[in-house]
Specification:
This protein has 13 helices and 8 strands. With 310 residues, it is α/β, with parallel strands linked by helices. Among the domains are: 157 residues, Rossmann fold, CATH 3.40.50; 55 residues, ProC C-terminal domain-like fold (Orthogonal Bundle), CATH 1.10.3730. Helix 3 packs parallel to helix 11, helix 6 packs across helix 11 and helix 7 packs across helix 8. It is globular, with a radius of gyration of 22 Å. Bound molecules: NADP nicotinamide-adenine-dinucleotide phosphate. The site of NADP nicotinamide-adenine-dinucleotide phosphate has 27 residues, from helix 1 and helix 3.
Length: 310
């Protein structure tokens, strides 16, 4: 389909993730992007993105709104653009801000809450999303088409989104740490820099693609690389001594706990912005709102501090 005949997208908040989405989507969709400091987004114009500092104008002139501001900006921005998003689909990429909060901030819009990662820039993102009950099948299909044009897309239950923020959203940071460590190991052994980087990155790609294509458990694939008395087992033995698996498990748990804590804070802030009573400090309303917030399943306190458990 020709770009001009497709639905118009507004990306509100062209920062790291909004900018990556704009760069990836602009070749296939008509995109308008906003941020307050437009000078920092000028490069997008060269890719065919229309820039404006006016969120309302961008929302008014678009069919679908992609919201990529920081979590605490979501409610104020929704309240600002609400008169222009009635009857439109809004896809929010913000961590922690629930569909319920967004529905209450702009009741006329149909909300999709998504989590993605920076690999959308090269159309290799992994985006998960949950829909509010007002989203119809046509909205959902269109959202999948947009999100699917920048990588893999999968519908999930909203209750999984905080943990998926720690996996899909934060995951690249953990994997870059792995790649960096492999590179430094190779540098220590004298491999040239570019060879160290390419071998680490391509090994990660190949291992991930084999994992998905084979349908096998990673432990089975790992075992297939190990030969008795061989090279790989020496490396794995060192990793076990370094408690690497425990470290990664703890990283995902700690990040998920943080996502849930932010969700709780965000809900309190949103309640203040949405509910006038809240701002006036009526404690019973505050407590009843807080009661509705789920406690984290894991508080980060009960991991063994002594010997490795893996
Ligand atoms: N970074 C990631 O890898 C990642 C992954 C998945 C999801 N997310 C989610 O994406 C959201 C953005 O994260 P980010 O890392 O991309 O943050 P970021 O780089 O700070 O981008 C946010 C952008 O929003 C703009 N902004 C702030 N207030 C605005 C307003 N009132 N109207 C229009 N634009 C406004 C800011 O630019 P100005 O200050 O110039 O306005 C900034 O460029 C967050 O909610 C985060 O949870 C991020």
């Amino acid at each position: 389909m020709k770009k001009e005949s497709r639905q118009k997208l507004a990306i509100i908040g062209a920062g790291t993730i909004g900018g990556a989405l704009a760069r990836a989507l602009a070749s296939e969709w008509p995109v308008t992007a906003t941020r307050r400091n437009l000078a920092k987004a000028r490069a997008l114009e060269g890719l065919g993105v229309r820039l404006t500092g006016d969120n309302r104008e961008a929302a008014a002139e678009s069919d679908i709104i992609l919201l990529a501001v920081k979590p605490l900006q979501v409610v104020p921005v929704l309240q600002e653009i609400a008169p222009f998003t009635d009857g439109k689909t809004v896809i929010s990429f913000a961590a922690a801000i629930s569909l319920d909060i967004m529905n209450r901030a702009a009741p006329g819009s149909r909300f999709i809450r998504a989590m993605t990662n920076t690999a959308v820039e090269i159309r290799k993102g992994y985006t998960v999303y949950a829909c509010s009950s007002t989203v119809n099948e046509a909205d959902r299909r269109l959202a999948e088409e947009i999100l699917g044009s920048v990588g893999e897309v999968q519908a999930v239950d909203e209750s999984h989104l905080d943990v998926l923020t720690a996996m899909a959203g934060s995951g690249p940071a953990y994997l870059y740490t792995v790649v960096e460590s492999l590179i430094y190991g190779a540098l220590r052994m004298g491999l040239p820099r570019d060879l160290a980087l390419r071998s680490a990155a391509h090994t990660l790609i190949g291992a991930s693609e084999l994992l998905l294509a084979s349908g096998k458990h990673p432990a089975e694939l790992r075992d297939s690389v190990v030969t008795p008395g061989g090279v790989t087992i020496e490396g794995l033995y060192e990793l076990e001594e370094g408690r690497v698996r425990t470290a990664f498990m703890k990283a995902v748990c700690a990040a998920s706990t943080q996502a849930r804590a932010l969700a709780k804070d965000a809900r309190i802030q949103a309640e203040k912005a949405i509910t006038p009573f809240f701002a006036s400090g009526q404690e019973e309303i505050r407590e009843s709102a807080l009661d509705k917030i789920e406690e984290p399943l894991y508080d980060g306190s009960n991991f063994p501090k002594g010997e490795a458990s893996n």
